[in-house]
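Example (one chain per record):
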Amino acid sequence: MQQLHRRFARAARERGDRRAFSEIAAELIDEEAHSSRVSVLVRSLPLPWRVGLWSTSRQVAASALTMSVALLVLMAARSGRSDEATQHLVYMDSTGATSAVLVRPSEWSSTSAPVVPVPTTSAMADAARTYADLPPAISPDGKSVAWIKDSGDSTTLDIWIRTPAGTRRLTSQSRDDLVLGWLPDGSALVGQTMRWSPATDGNYDIAVFDTATGAARQITRGPAQDIDPQVSPDGTRVAFIRGSMVDPPQLCITTIDGQHEPECRLIGGQPIATLLGWTGLDELALTTYESGAQPLVRYDWMRDNRTNVLAPYVIRPRLSPDRRWVAGSARLDGMVGLRDMVLPLDAPGTARPVAGAGHAPDALRWWEGMPDRSWLIDHLEFSDSVTTVLPGIGTRLSVKALSATGSEIPIRAPVVWSSSDTMVAIIDSTGEVRVRAPGEVAVTATLADWRKATKRIKVVGKAPINVLDERWEGDWRRRWLPWGDPTPLVSTGPQGIRGLWSRGDGVYPSMAILRDALSARDGLGLEVRISTPLTLAQHQRLKVMFLAGLDPSTFERADQQKAPPTVGTSVSMCGIIFPQEGRWGATRIALFGSVPENIDVGREGAALRTGDWWTLRVQILPDGRCGIAINGRVLRLSKEPVPLDGAYRVWLGDESAGVQLIHGPLQIWTGVRTDIRWSN
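Predicted structure:
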């Protein structure tokens, strides 16, 4: 059937039938033009046929391009003004003569009178004639042009390019290379190639081509047919059409670095027919295959919403460089046959036909003019002011995208973060920096390999150093001052684990105080396992605290059957008291760290009352903030600092009436351990 369709289609073209190949196939098999069988037959045709090169004469190579790129200057001179907003729809007739429709937004009116092309010259004429059914790819600055050509030494198509330095063949692969456009900053070409497809398949993949060497960087891969790439105006994404022998053609979008799997979809349940390009950061212009129609629509990718622009039937549409105008061959309601139309996308009701017999729907035409570069991302900048990070704290970095004029542009592609030294700091996909050790690191944010920004961050502070690993052996009183009545003892808790039992009975407190003073200037932390089998609403209370200004000799002289000596204010405390008295306080924890705070931990607090071991972390950071974590979960990081110039000691214990509140194995260190992310 595919061979029969090829012969049937060639015969139709040779007798002057200019209908779309889908309509010709539909006539052959007596089905609707949008049916899946018709799509399969159309996709089985050689690509040169599908883009208009169905005969040998149409594939003849054009002569070398010799004219300089001066169309915009000439057009402006003819019109008597210099207007960058002017777009030029250029036509070429069978003799090679060119004329153009000058489209100026300020002069477009609501009249339906035909627009009249005026004679002109174009430096792009030879490039356009070489590959008649795809327009030449003109660089954003208008100084270079790339086109497709059968170079004569193979049966495949190659890319040629002309720059101010001269004209040359860019690719010479044994498989097709086709150019569709430029990246919006003019740094490379975008197109499609068969070079990675097995010879038995002959499918296209999307690629970016280096303008100096012709080297291709693969963007898409796989057995599907990927064609008609269009790069987003910010430069970060590429849209294209994907088809296969099984699925209908879909609109797909992926990042320009090719590192993400494309997302593909139908347009309101309809297959895509042609892709014109992007009309904004999230919107594209395209046509769809529908029952008896092929309308021109605007499609919002983010909202998955389509809006009809021109219906019912539009073929060979072309989007202007400024993304505001469309030229296409249309058959409108009440109109017989196809006619070239020009319309502004924002006001499709003002569409106007193109006058002149030489501007038939199958005439050779292309757009020229200044592109809209207002959405082009020129560079990235860090939007945060972070230059130093504390161990255990980390921070979240962020970037913003800016145009050449400094306007901020929304970021639509993923930002990839990396660290130059993962032994110092790592950074996750959200920009969260997690510190591992003091040092300096370069953090880089890359936007789809299109733009990147780097800055250096210092991790200040010292590596943690253990100063005590307490297992509550026989000599523990050398390190701790026991105080209270009854006096605290070392006992055995759950699973036979030894710990300090604070035996306060509700009349007098009972605790132990670390004899040695510790400095918090580089950070100071402790971790202790605790068992709190609570049964009463009062007289059973745990206290674990760093305190500054506590003098053990004062306690040694004090009466242990009275309240303990005053130990200062909460400003110089970092730790917890659990629980609070009464039923209201059963699951509440008092958190100390400059300014005290009382929080209800709910179910977690109820679990702490069972007597099962749980782990408490208390950490003073090098900036004085106090962090509290239970079982690895951060409960609080104080906003206000505790003083760092004091001599800190540890207080363990309070009241334990009728039960054993056990402080098990305990470690104390200077610095900050980084296994807990205090920024959370």
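Caption: The radius of gyration is 37 Å.
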